[in-house]
Amino acid sequence: MTLRQWTDDTMAEVLGREHRTDPVLPGNGGPAGNARLTAWTGLVLLVLFAVELATLLDLGPLTDWHVVVGVLLVPPALLKTATTGWRIIRYYTGNRAYRSAGPPPMLLRVLGPLVVLTTLAVLGTGLALVAVGPDAGRAPWFYVGGRLAVTVLVLHKATFVLWAVATGVHTLARLVSAVRQISSGRAVPGRVVRVAVLVLTGLVAIAAAVVVLRLSGAWINLPLPLHHRHG
Question: Does pTM surpass 0.85?
Answer without folding.
Answer: no
